[in-house]
Design brief:
heterodimer; A: mainly alpha; two-stranded antiparallel sheet; 14 helices; 74% helix; B: two-stranded antiparallel ribbon; 69% helix; 4% strand
Chain lengths: 323, 541
């Protein structure tokens, strides 16, 4: 009603209705503003709630395990026989297996990733960069199960038949694929931080007569080192939490490779153990709880890595902000 | 000198960085190339008349009339194959012959019971028939031509016995005559060897042409049809023409595999012409035609994905991802809106941001554990739902997983709305809420949609979180949200590792995973295009 009156019969602004709000309207607006804000805040807090729920529920299912079995034995012994008459839960070789493939993957991925990041940020023309970016985006978009499929049905037979490995599903296979999966993360974060090092530093270096190689190695990488470390940590997080690829490609043999550099042996990781065993365990059995205990170990590991990566990202931001 | 070294190092470094990118591209091609190439064969291939039969039977597709004509034509060529094999088998497959003599003897016994004869006569005929049966069996089992001849002659002398006329025993004599003829043609010492190889030949013919028209329909769907694809038919033909044998060449060395022509193996026998015949007439027997089997994307599959397509898997993936989006979209957009528009940099906001980052870093398998412990065992039963893995639990888990992606993408989209738009709206007296709903949100919407599509593609490929919360490898199409479902992602895992039958149909294995990759790459392509347009628009072109 008000609208019609205002618009049609009394064109002059403010004649029909006071622009000053009545106390009631004022209160309403105040309440709407603050209650709405509160509501939005609460909804936003759902992320916090979810994180707490994840920690709570995963730990809750792991607690019966920790009360009945010793934590030191869980973390320091190698025999994992959850279904035996006297079950043994030594997860050391699983934890080592996870770290083993992750580190092996980083050995492949870090040099390639950083070189590619330097290439993209400092060397190549923008036009060519637009062609390479999609390649990295596609590599990042391919789902992990497709990589696992490739590892099992394409890479493993190659390894076994053409390269003479005794088994195609081994630590090398898993870590090659993991490195491919970690590469997009490493490249994009490292490239961001390298690009964030300003023109001034680069130009100053070139102006002093340094070559591009010297500029990159002596100026840019030291300046961007926090961001690069963050990139490596994020890549590591990606690799350590990966499930499908290691489950399909690592061979799932519960052992620590010896000699330690022998990548052609099969290993078993924490994620693969959870994925492989959970389907066959009855609820509320020691085996079931132990899988949640492994989940807690994983959760803690990634949480710590996350804090580390955030520290380095924040410090990278601070540095580039100053310069 | 130093200058030159510096320049060379510089150039070498440039080349090295370039190599890393070339390596990336190469990796992408290696990963996608073979998969797409083999996966495409699930849809584009040369089908055979067996495939068209299967399509008609299982999905009621195709023209029954023309198929009948085609089948009749191909059967007319197949007849010769069966004739040759049956003919040859008479002399070789003695087990079948022995079984037949036992049958005849039993039948004779039944017949005699209804005949009006004296006990004495009955006994005599029984004894005679038993004698004949044993003699025949001895002949069938023997490798010595003399013994065979002796026994067969003994049997044949009763050919005109009146007591046996018009009884089942007459067939004894036909068997004996047939066998004598067959025995003359083959090397009896090789019979054992022939029998093994013959079994393989029969099995291969069965897989190539399907069960004989006269046989009963097999129980398993996969056994009901011959080679449905021309590439498979050619592989089988190769196995039919060449047998692989492992022979020892030197002591202490590994065995060596050699290919032996089966035609040579059966040289001089009645089976020899079979191989040439099949090779020359396979085209006519199977009638290959190039086909685009687009129904691969909607068809249900038979056990082990032997026949059919990935319809239920696509449906399940769509259901899961869209439901997850339904849950996560409001949550993500509101969170992002709050973080951009209302939040100041205080401790609460820092905690929220840290939690979002933590959520993004949680391994996907831990989301699976959480989904099992929380949604399946706690949350859904809380509202009276079943405590079983189901679509609802899986999509809720996926929604939690993708929340950080959604928040970050929406945040970026909302942040990229030019400040001038907001200020103009606020300056006109609109409240901040109204400004967001009427101005900021519509402008940011395409950007938010980009985020939605990207999280869709992430969710569609996730496998670990739905392992325990709602994915199954085999099972019916879900009827409600409380049923588990098949999905492309879990299906790809199962078809690669879990399923033995699937190893026999590589095109279906690769077809599944390529479908998944294509769905995801298409979603990504849409997102990239959308993003480019938004970018251009916001720049004001």
């Amino acid at each position: 009603m008000d609208d019609i009156v205002r618009n049609d019969t009394k064109p002059a602004a403010g004649t029909g209705q006071s622009l000053v709000l009545t106390p009631l309207q004022d209160l309403g607006g105040f309440l709407f503003h603050h209650l709405g804000r509160l509501l939005l805040f609460l909804i936003t807090c759902s992320s916090v709630l979810l994180v707490l729920l994840i920690f709570f529920f995963v730990i809750r299912e792991a607690i019966p395990f920790l009360t009945k079995f010793s934590l030191t034995e869980f973390l320091t012994t190698k025999s994992w026989y959850p279904e035996a008459a006297t079950p043994k839960f030594g997860a050391l070789s699983l934890i080592v297996g996870s770290l083993y493939v992750t580190i092996a993957a980083l050995v492949f991925a870090v040099p390639t990733g950083i070189l590619a990041a330097i290439f993209l940020s400092d060397i190549v023309l923008l036009k060519i960069r637009d062609f390479i970016k999609p390649v990295i985006e596609i590599l990042a978009a391919i789902p992990s199960v497709a990589y696992g499929f490739f590892a099992v049905l394409v890479l493993a037979p190659w390894m076994q038949n053409k390269w003479g490995f005794t088994t195609g599903t081994n630590a090398l296979n898993a870590s090659i694929i993991l490195s491919i999966m970690a590469l997009p993360t490493i490249i994009s974060v490292a490239e961001d931080s390298i690009s964030a090092v300003g023109r001034e530093l680069r130009e100053a270096s070139y102006g002093l007569g340094a070559t591009r190689f010297e500029t990159i190695f002596k100026v840019i990488i030291p300046a961007a080192h926090s961001g690069i470390i963050a990139a490596i940590v994020l890549g590591m997080m990606r690799a350590i939490g990966e499930t499908m690829v290691v489950w399909m490609a690592s061979g799932n043999a519960n052992q620590i490779p010896s000699p330690w550099w022998d990548l052609s042996q099969s290993v078993r990781t924490m994620t693969a153990t959870i994925a492989g065993d959970m389907g066959e365990t009855p609820k509320d059995s020691p085996h079931y709880w132990s899988l949640f205990a492994i989940g807690v170990v994983l959760l803690v590991m990634t949480f710590l890595l996350n804090i580390i990566s955030e520290y380095f990202l924040a410090s990278a931001k601070r540095k580039t902000g100053k310069s | 000198m130093r200058h030159i070294i510096r320049r060379i190092t510089d150039k070498a470094f440039t080349i090295l960085t370039g190599t890393s990118v070339v390596l990336l591209t190469f990796v992408l091609l290696i990963v996608l190339g073979p998969m797409v190439w083999r996966g495409a064969k699930a849809v584009l291939f040369k089908d055979t008349v067996e495939f068209r039969k299967m399509q008609l039977d299982l999905y009621n597709r195709g023209n029954p009339e023309s198929l009948k004509i085609e089948t009749a034509e191909s059967e007319s060529f197949r007849k010769t194959v069966y004739e040759i094999v049956d003919d040859f088998k008479h002399g070789i497959d003695t087990e079948e012959l022995i079984d037949r003599t036992k049958q005849i003897y039993r039948q004779l016994g039944k017949e005699l019971r209804y005949k009006k004869i004296t006990d004495k006569e009955y006994q005599r005929i029984r004894l005679l028939a038993r004698d004949l049966r044993d003699r025949l069996q001895a002949a069938f089992e023997s490798n010595d031509e003399k013994i065979i001849k002796e026994n067969i002659d003994y049997v044949l002398q009763y050919r005109l016995d009146e007591n046996l006329a018009d009884t089942a025993a007459v067939e004894f004599f036909t068997l004996a005559e047939d066998f004598l003829k067959a025995a003359e043609n083959i090397d009896l010492n090789k019979r054992q060897q022939y029998a093994g190889s013959l079994q393989q030949v029969e099995e291969l013919i069965n897989r190539l042409l399907g069960p004989k028209p006269s046989d009963a329909v097999p129980a398993l769907t996969m056994d009901r049809y011959g080679a449905t694809r021309w590439d498979l038919a050619q592989k089988l033909l190769d196995q039919l023409l060449w047998s692989e044998q492992w022979i020892k060449q030197e002591t202490g060395q590994p065995l060596v595999k050699i290919r032996v022509s089966r035609a040579e193996e059966f040289a001089g026998t009645k089976l020899e012409p079979l191989f040439g015949y099949v090779e020359n007439n396979l085209n006519k027997m199977l009638k290959p035609e190039f086909t685009v089997y687009w129904q691969y994307f909607i068809d249900d599959s038979t056990a082990g994905h032997y026949f059919g397509g990935v319809g239920p898997e696509i449906l399940g993936t769509l259901l899961l991802t869209l439901l997850a989006m339904l849950f996560v979209f409001p949550l993500g957009v509101i969170s992002a809106a709050y973080l951009v528009e209302c939040a100041s940099d205080n401790i609460a906001i820092r905690i929220i941001r840290m939690c979002i980052n933590t959520l993004a870093g949680v391994p996907s398998i831990v989301f699976g554990l959480f989904g099992l412990a929380f949604f399946v065992l706690f949350f859904i039963p809380l509202f009276g739902g079943p405590s079983e893995p189901c679509i609802l639990a899986a999509s809720l888990t996926l929604a939690v997983l993708t929340l950080p992606v959604m928040i970050r993408a929406s945040e970026e989209a909302i942040r990229s709305v030019p400040q001038a738009y907001k200020e103009a709206s606020l300056g006109l007296g609109a409240s901040r809420f109204r400004t967001f709903v009427k101005v900021t949100f519509p402008v940011a919407l395409p950007g938010i949609l980009t985020g939605v599509i990207l999280s869709l593609s992430r969710v569609a490929g996730e496998t670990a979180p739905i392992l325990f919360t709602g994915a199954i490898a085999l099972g019916p199409v879900p009827k409600s949200l409380f049923d588990p479902t098949r999905t492309l992602s879990y299906g790809s895992y199962d078809i690669a590792v879990g399923d033995r039958l699937a190893m026999m149909v590589p095109h279906n294995q690769y077809g599944m995973v390529v479908t998944l990759v294509l769905v995801i790459l298409c979603l990504n392509a849409i997102a990239i295009i959308l993003r480019a347009r938004v970018f251009r628009k916001l720049r004001g072109h």
